[in-house]
Amino acid sequence: MKLNLRAPISSSIAIAVGFLVLLGYFFDFGLLTALRRVFLQWAVILAAIAMMVGVANLFAVHWTKIKTWQAGSGYSLILLLSLLITLMVVGFFGPTGSWTLWLFNYIEVPIESSLMAILAIALAYASARLLRRRMNPFSAIFLFTALIVLLATVPILGIELPGLHGPDGIRSLITGIFTVAGARGILLGIVLGTVATALRIIMGIDRPYSE
Amino acid sequence: MNLSSITGFGFVLIFFILMLVFFVLSRKDGGGTLRDIGAFSRISRAIGMAVEAGKRLHISLGRGSIIGVQAAPALVGLSVLERIARTASMSDRPMISTSGEGTLAILSQGAMKSAYRNLNILSQYDPNYGRLSGLTPFAYACGTIPVIYDEESSLNILLGHFGSEIALIADASERSGGMTLAGSDSLPAQAILYAAAHEPLIGEEVYAASAYVQAGLMHTASLRAQDALRWLFVAVLFLGALLKLAGIV
């Protein structure tokens, strides 16, 4: 019978390291704090290596798409060429070299700005769709509030309306009181969820590292 | 050691004890029943229908760094991924996972491999089922959208840390006729998802996902501990407000 000891060993190491890092946050003892710092530095290095593995995975996925003539393989070819050219330019001229900055300023920034503009349209369209898909009192409040805040953000044709614009306007009331109160409530829930998830990982209930 | 450290440690300890208590209670009553969240019951049906129809499922884990607090919703997403991958492995089209961070891409491959191994169909597993789709917010969105369009995903589950780029992904899902279940820890993303997703998860609902896909009794126990502590928070906030109103604090 073959015993697979890999999973218990990796789980034990992960649980022990997780527990030490957690204790290191609360108790400022010399060895514990030093261990926490070392483990976090290792985590940062491993995350950087994982990023390189991820880029290799990205390359492999798109290479497979090109080889097998899948839908959108033309875009995959453009992506791989762009990746290789960027790697060569940054590798040769350095991250702050003139050609590297040219690539950033004249290719990446305009593309991302265009996507930001598309995003604005997508959001407006999504709001309109919400009326059709899920029309209930909450959706009505959501859309009405969004409209009021949008209208009150800038003067309408250069005119500031009393009660709408300015520090005493309805926008300030919405963003300063209702939004902050609601956001804090949601954030408290998120904190509880984050602690629950972290504890499950430290207890070894969730083991995303098991393979 | 200062007061905030002791308070923080005490809070984590209470949470831990509550999880254990609810776990013991869950074992007695078999997990009990959870509060109905419409999104999860509709998604369960959608998963079954997609598998029966031989359509593809797609899960996206966001782009939160694994070494920060943004990792928590993605870790929930990984639990959901592993659970759903077991069901989806029966489909004609294998499930695909996308992410915007290297570590998450590797972990998603691990979760899917684990699901295939548990079902004794490891030979059918392909590492390309777990993909890195881009490293910047918009690159991630642009890398994820073709998976929705070209690979004909009928159900898109978005669980993780996202920014406003989530609107583009949700829009692609809507246009391709697919269904979207989405949740995030980010407040702007939640606001966008409320308008753009079929089934948005608001607040801590995203952290309940693993309990609702029956990932285990400890997931249910941790959800109950969250609920108990939330009521405690509500009571403390009310008390604080009353004391403030009375001019005592």
Radius of gyration of chain B: 19 Å
* CATH architecture annotation name of chain B: 3-Layer(aba) Sandwich
Structural class by sheet pairing and helices of chain A:
mainly alpha
| Low-pLDDT runs of chain B | none
Number of strands of chain A: 0
Number of separate helices of chain B: 9
Please tell me the total number of domains of chain B. Answer: 1
* Overall tally of domains of chain A: 3
Strand order of the largest sheet of chain B: 3-2-1-4-5-6
Oligomer: heterodimer
Taken from the alpha-carbon principal axes, the silhouette of chain A is extended
Percentage of residues in DSSP E strands of chain A: under 5%
Descriptive overview:
The complex is a heterodimer of chains A (211) and B (249). The two termini of chain A are 20 Å apart. With 211 residues, chain A is mainly α. Helices cover 79% and strands 0% of the residues of chain A. Chain A is built from six helices and no strands. The longest helix of chain A has 38 residues, at 30-67. With 249 residues, chain B is of the alpha/beta class. Chain B has a single domain (41-223), classed as Rossmann fold (3-Layer(aba) Sandwich), CATH 3.40.50. Chain B has a six-stranded parallel sheet, sandwiched between helices. In chain B, α7 (187-196) links the parallel β5 and β6 (199-201). The two termini of chain B are 26 Å apart. The chains are: A mainly alpha (211), B alpha/beta (249). At the A-B interface, α1, α2, α4 and α6 of A face α1, α3, α4, β3 and α5 of B.
